[in-house]
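Need tokens for this chain, all 65 residues.
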Amino acid sequence: MLATDKGITLKGNITHYDEGFDNQYNGLGLIREPYIGDYLYTISDEIIKINNINGLAQITEIKLP
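Here are the structure tokens for all 65 residues:
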């Protein structure tokens, strides 16, 4: 875990990488990362992912046309 003197701690990572690209960046830069209640929404050009804010377990993934 990464912690700073300001008390910020890395809890985990959420990726929008495509496994078919051997985890190389494929242009899916995140546009927004809002959270509502216990859910974190990560939105890129092609995917919306919803993860639980506590532990970051993935709830669902929606591929955009």
